[in-house]
Amino acid sequence: MSDIIGITMGDPCGVGPEISVRALAEMSAQDRMATRIYGNLATLEAARQALGLSIDLEPHVVDIDVEGAPLPWGKLSPIAGDAAFRFIERAVRDAEAGLIGCIVTAPINKEALNAAGHHYDGHTGMLRSLTGSSAAYMLLASERLKVIHVSTHVSLQEAIRRSTTERVLATIRAGNKHLKRIGYENPRIAVAGINPHCGENGLFGTEDDDQIAPAVAAAKAEGINVDGPISADTVFHRAYSGAFDLVVAQYHDQGHIPIKLVAFDTAVNVSVELPIDRTSVDHGTAFDIAGRGIANHGNMNSAIAYARKLVDGRTEKG
After folding, report:
1. What's this model's pTM, rounded to 2 decimal places?
2. Which of 153, 164, 141 is nearest to 245 (CA)?
3. Which three-class secondary structure state does DSSP give residue 118?
4. Rounded to 5 degrees, what angle do the CA atoms 164, 165, 170 make?
């Protein structure tokens, strides 16, 4: 496997170009040699100028044409949505060919993506489609709290429907496998309930008893160190305090809210169970500050660091 990290620039009108350039500029010479930005050189040069940096970008850029580039900062554009898709598509093909070891994605705009005719709910669904994967899971990783999701970008009604025994079990397995890969010998996994107090013995719904508990029992029978369902109003605090290494969240906000509360600027989005490795920043395109040279690139640095650990086949427990 290649040790090169491929950063996809994200939406050309957002902060992705700026955080990509600033992260590249701060790298050691050795790490910079092992980094490529999949994007548009003219846009990245505009970002460099906004940042006031003098780095030579050309050797590190896989330049992909964008009509009219650089596009206006902070404007929703189907051209930008199509470009963001093409940056990712090229990086995926290079990852499949072994030319890069991990993809790190800067933020895309889902409205621009769909306006361009690319109908995906976000990066994870797009990557699943591009790689022909039957499943992919979103894992959010921070120093003291890690969360993997049974479902993400669907309505709450649909999320409840998707919390089937089979899907919850598959999510537990995926999380266990990933944590073992990054150095946890016997990951301690907690599964959050979907109803208040896990349904209170059927008083507030039966999904926890009928769908989630059987998945936990099946995972235990496979030798996975898992507990649940545990009421969602306590399980994240327990995990943050060190009782668990990973929480299985049943839906998007259940997992995202605690992570963004405790690690808003540092949490890394990791795609699990794809045939390629991918990490990402866990924030949006921030059109309101794009092009002003003030975007915080700390989350990008965290995503790159996690990617390098995946490529190296190791990570620190945390």
Report:
1. 0.87
2. 141
3. coil
4. 100
